């Protein structure tokens, strides 16, 4: 029986381990929906991707003895889908791939959070992941555990969002008037008046021009662009008039209860127009017949068809019969979501195109200053064949001569009112545009402190005119008093005069005469800010209180002295003093003018800009400018990135001046944390002109890195930006053991010379001369010349080789000397220890004594073994001509190096011993690669090298906890 026993087969599907999402975008802008539209969401959270196992068994074979089990998986995931800025009114339809649902729907598995300011976090996340539970205040989103089926990727979702302002329209779309008001409110202009807004709202309502935020618009737009788009769509003017906005519908046909304005403001005749070039009263341009389109297409988003783009057409059949089809380019109107409104827009565009084919241009004087865009006028010019032609003002431009230039578009003839205004009822005043401007008063010319200027060698020039028709002047400059060039224009009367009495350096009030103008009192803070700055003979000061005296002079008190880098000084009676403001022409002069007498001429013109004086008719005023160089702006921020063991990358934030005369930047560093530009060491020769800048110049240890900008004249910015850099030890490409005998005044170098104040080993002078260069004693009273006799001396030192390798010396010796060396255990046997490590056999150690002549003169590298005792001897010869001075002595051994790297080491405030695995190690370098310590600065400190312990310091030098990356470098100390 057992031979025919059945069996079970299991078929298992592959299990998906990762969730795939394609609609998550970091940094995406959050849309704000006005009206109703369709948008795609952005996944801002997902968690708990879970596989659910499903088993299905089926019997087979004779008697059903065999069984096949199929194992499949379906998946779920918890997601939050961000929609838009809240609060919103609700959700309509939901598109999930090709399926459409109406919210709420249990098969969707999503819940709406409308985006109120006080909304609570999703209860699911609060219960399962409380540390991730966020309320997302003000953000409308959908949240739920969604079924992914047997796929590890999320379906494509779209949502019909019922946004804001639905009550202003039909409950679905928004009235454009309220849309515009909402936009202005969002940018802080809620208090601005919009004249005509109620009329515009009524027009949009009656014309059924209701809109919603375009669903396909993902790019942010300025408020100005949005408002202009809506105005163009609804055929309206929006402009600024008399400290308020104004909006005027351009429609000329009644719609529902709304009636267009048919009021004619002026009935214009040739008596009103100011002739244009050629003598014409009215000029006009007319569209070519080919541009009079009779078929208009509008692209809109059809809400009833899933918000798909569709195109509707409107055509003038009568015109098509006569002239054929003239198709206009398609107008994009994605604010519109119904076909009916799209057709109405197309009809309005067709009518506008037909009846606004002519544009008129004409000029009027200031008697017609009431005219604004949207106003209607009646045009009459018999010579041009224009009679009672209604036109709507499209634009107004004011010329420098006060003449107003208008453009107007033609309107269909019909029933219009009589002219509202009649400029002929009264005698029109005659405006004289050519009055005599008079002359300029003697100017005040000076150079303020550099901190007040915007250019090098800046000169300020101010003047005024007594004639009431004086409108300003042009300022001309010359270095020969023959050939003048235009320097600039003065448009305002300057306030300057002279001191009535002496002003002492500690004075707090003054009295001055002034040719023109008044002064206004300010508070103390405004005076400290320099809002009432005065210039007097090199000093800048500001006043608080201004009082007009009975004699016509001004008393200015509460003086803040010595501003903008100037110093309070003594000023005598009669010194010129000026109120520093926009009335002064401020102009930088080229360096060629500095130190030389230059000449200024001021040619006055009248209030209309005409009747300018001739250069030959005005007086020249002299001035000798000095060099006043404006410093380049300060560097704002300096940052550093640690690239490798020796390379550092620097970059900085800097706002270039206008005009830009910055030639480059200087980087300096100081050892430690001292911020001192003067003692800083340049990182490179010359200027740095590009960033980021990489260098290996800065050595190991803690450094302060500083930066200044330098202009084309070599001027450095006043202040420097800086960062503190902790390099740690500099890692070596080839690890060396270094015995430095010069440390601690050659403490490990036995010698019978003498160590002087320079820290070097010198020979003893038997003639009792000074050993410092150039300073000697007379040896005896009768000596006719200097004597010197520098005795010979011997200096010896030794050390034990900690590891095997090549040994060599580096010496810095001045004068005659021979360098020897010898190695103890040089002939000893090299054996293998139990640990298979090389070691010296102690039984064969050679013992030195003074008679053992094993010294060799140093010439080249030699091989040494661990534990060898290496002696060095320097023999200084006796000399009467040159002294032997030992300045430096280094012994090196090229040892096999080890390097270990540790990442994310948690360093407690008490310090941490590095977990070095190298046995019997000797530390040559410890390098801090990076410090991860939040927003606070951290600086590494090496507590000990063997064992190797480190600590972290804060900016005050206190040991603190933190996380670091460390690279340790060293070698195996075989003698341990």
Features:
976 residues; mainly beta; 7 domains; seven-stranded antiparallel beta sheet; six-stranded mixed beta sheet; 7% helix; flat; Rcc01698_C
Structure explained in plain terms:
- InterPro entries: J_dom, Rcc01698_C.
- This is Phage tail protein.
- Helices cover 7% and strands 39% of the residues.
- The strands form 16 sheets. The protein has a seven-stranded antiparallel β-sheet with strand order 29-28-32-26-27-31-30, with no helix packed on it.
- α2 runs antiparallel to α4.
- About 5% of the residues have low confidence.
Describe the secondary structure blueprint for this structure.
Layout: E1 8-12, E2 36-39, E3 42-60, E4 66-85, E5 90-96, E6 99-102, E7 111-113, H1 123-128, E8 139-149, E9 157-162, H2 176-186, E10 194-195, H3 197-206, H4 223-233, E11 236-240, E12 245-249, E13 264-268, E14 282-286, E15 295-302, E16 308-315, H5 317-323, E17 331-332, H6 339-355, E18 358-364, E19 376-381, E20 386-398, E21 404-410, E22 444-446, E23 458-462, E24 470-478, E25 485-490, E26 496-499, E27 509-514, H7 524-528, E28 533-536, E29 539-542, E30 545-548, E31 554-557, E32 576-579, E33 585-588, E34 598-606, E35 620-623, E36 637-642, E37 648-653, E38 662-671, E39 681-682, E40 693-695, E41 702-711, E42 721-726, E43 736-740, H8 743-746, E44 750-751, E45 754-755, E46 761-762, E47 793-800, E48 805-814, E49 817-823, E50 830-832, E51 838-840, E52 856-857, E53 862-864, E54 869-876, E55 885-894, E56 897-907, E57 912-913, E58 921-932, E59 939-945, E60 948-953, E61 959-960, E62 962-972
């Amino acid at each position: 029986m057992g031979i025919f026993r059945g069996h079970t087969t299991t078929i298992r599907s592959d299990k998906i381990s990762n969730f795939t999402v394609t609609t998550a975008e970091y940094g995406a802008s959050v849309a704000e929906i006005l009206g109703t539209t369709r948008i795609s969401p952005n996944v801002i959270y997902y968690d708990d991707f879970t596989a659910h196992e499903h088993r299905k068994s089926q019997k087979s074979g004779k008697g059903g003895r065999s069984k096949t089990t199929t194992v499949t998986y379906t998946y779920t995931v918890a997601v939050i889908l961000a929609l838009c800025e809240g609060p919103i009114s609700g959700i309509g339809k939901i598109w999930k791939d090709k399926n459409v649902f109406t919210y709420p729907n249990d098969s969707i598995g999503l819940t709406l959070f409308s985006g109120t300011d006080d909304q609570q976090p999703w209860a699911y996340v609060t219960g399962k992941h409380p540390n991730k539970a966020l309320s997302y205040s003000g953000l409308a989103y959908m949240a739920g555990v969604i079924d992914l089926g047997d796929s590890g990727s999320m379906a494509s979702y779209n949502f019909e969002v019922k946004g804001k302002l639905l009550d202003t329209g039909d409950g679905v779309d928004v009235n454009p008037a309220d849309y515009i008001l909402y936009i202005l409110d969002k940018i802080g202009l809620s208090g601005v008046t919009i004249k005509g807004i109620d009329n515009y709202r009524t027009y949009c309502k009656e014309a059924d021009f209701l809109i919603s935020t375009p669903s396909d618009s993902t790019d942010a737009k300025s408020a100005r662009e949005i408002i202009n788009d809506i105005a163009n769509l609804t055929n309206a003017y929006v402009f600024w008039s008399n400290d308020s906005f104004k909006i005027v519908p351009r429609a000329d046909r009644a719609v529902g209860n709304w009636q267009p304005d048919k009021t004619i403001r002026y009935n214009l005749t040739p008596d009103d127009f100011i002739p244009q070039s050629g003598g014409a009263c009215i000029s006009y341009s007319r569209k070519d017949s080919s541009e009079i389109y009779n078929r208009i297409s509008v692209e809109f988003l059809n809400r009833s068809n899933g918000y798909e783009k569709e195109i509707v057409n409107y055509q003038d059949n009568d015109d098509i019969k006569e002239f054929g089809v003239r198709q206009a380019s398609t107008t994009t109107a994605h604010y519109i979501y119904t076909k009916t409104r799209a057709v109405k827009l197309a009809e309005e565009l067709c009518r506008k195109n037909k009846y606004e084919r002519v544009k008129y241009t004409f000029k009027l004087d200031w008697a017609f200053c009431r005219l604004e865009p949207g106003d209607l006028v009646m045009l009459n010019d018999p010579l041009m064949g224009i009679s009672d032609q209604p036109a709507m003002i499209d634009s107004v431009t004011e010329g420098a001569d006060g003449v107003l230039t208008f453009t107007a578009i033609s309107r269909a003839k019909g029933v219009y009112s009589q002219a509202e205004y009649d400029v002929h009822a009264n005698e029109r005043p005659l405006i004289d545009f050519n009055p005599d401007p008079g002359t300029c008063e003697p100017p005040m010319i000076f150079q303020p402190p550099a901190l007040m200027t915007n250019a090098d060698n800046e000169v300020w020039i101010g003047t005024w005119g007594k004639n009431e028709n004086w409108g300003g002047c042009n300022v001309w400059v010359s270095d020969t008093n023959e050939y003048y060039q235009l320097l600039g224009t003065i448009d305002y009367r300057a306030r300057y005069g002279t001191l009535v009495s002496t002003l002492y350096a500690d004075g707090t009030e003054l009295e001055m005469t002034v040719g023109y103008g008044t002064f206004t009192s300010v508070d103390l803070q405004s005076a400290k800010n320099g809002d009432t700055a005065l210039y007097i003979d090199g000093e800048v000061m500001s006043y608080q209180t201004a009082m007009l005296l009975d004699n016509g002079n001004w008393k200015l008190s509460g003086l803040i002295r010595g501003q903008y880098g100037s110093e309070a000084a003594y000023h005598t009676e009669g010194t010129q003093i000026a109120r520093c403001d926009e009335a002064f022409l401020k102009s930088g002069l080229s360096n060629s003018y500095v130190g030389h007498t230059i000449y200024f001429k001021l040619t006055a013109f009248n209030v209309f800009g005409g009747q300018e004086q001739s250069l030959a008719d005005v007086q020249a005023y002299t001035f000798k400018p000095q060099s006043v160089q404006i410093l380049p702006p300060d560097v704002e921020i300096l940052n550093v990135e640690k690239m490798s063991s020796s390379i550092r990358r620097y970059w900085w934030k800097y706002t270039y001046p206008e005009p830009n005369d910055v030639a480059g930047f200087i980087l300096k560093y100081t050892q430690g944390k001292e911020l001192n530009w003067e003692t800083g060491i340049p990182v490179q020769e010359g200027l740095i002109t590009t960033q980021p800048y990489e260098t290996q110049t800065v050595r190991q240890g803690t450094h302060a890195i500083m930066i200044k900008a330098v202009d084309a004249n070599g001027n450095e910015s006043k202040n420097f930006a800086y960062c503190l850099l902790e390099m740690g030890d500099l890692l070596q490409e080839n690890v060396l053991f270094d015995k430095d005998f010069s440390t601690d005044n050659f403490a490990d170098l036995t010698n019978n010379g003498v160590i002087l104040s320079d820290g070097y080993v010198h020979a003893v002078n038997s003639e009792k001369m000074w050993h410092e260069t150039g300073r000697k004693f007379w040896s005896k009273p009768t000596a006719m010349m200097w004597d010197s006799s520098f005795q010979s001396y011997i200096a010896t030192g030794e050390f034990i080789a900690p590891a095997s390798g090549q040994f060599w010396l580096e010496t810095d010796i001045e004068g005659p000397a021979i360098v020897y060396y010898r190695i103890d255990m040089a002939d000893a046997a090299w054996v293998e220890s139990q640990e298979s490590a090389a070691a010296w056999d102690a039984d064969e150690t050679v013992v030195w004594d003074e008679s053992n002549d094993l010294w060799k003169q140093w010439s080249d590298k030699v091989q040494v073994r661990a534990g060898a005792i290496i002696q060095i001897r320097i023999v200084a010869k006796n000399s009467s001509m040159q002294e032997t001075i030992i300045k430096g002595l280094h012994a090196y051994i090229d040892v096999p190096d080890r390097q270990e790297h540790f990442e994310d080491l948690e360093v407690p405030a008490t310090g941490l011993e590095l977990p070095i695995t190298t046995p019997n190690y000797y530390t040559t370098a410890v390098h801090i690669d990076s410090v991860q310590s939040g927003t606070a600065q951290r600086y590494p400190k090496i507590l000990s090298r063997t064992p190797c312990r480190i600590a972290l310091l804060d900016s005050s030098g206190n040991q603190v906890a933190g996380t670091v990356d460390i690279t340790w470098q060293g070698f195996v100390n075989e003698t341990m």
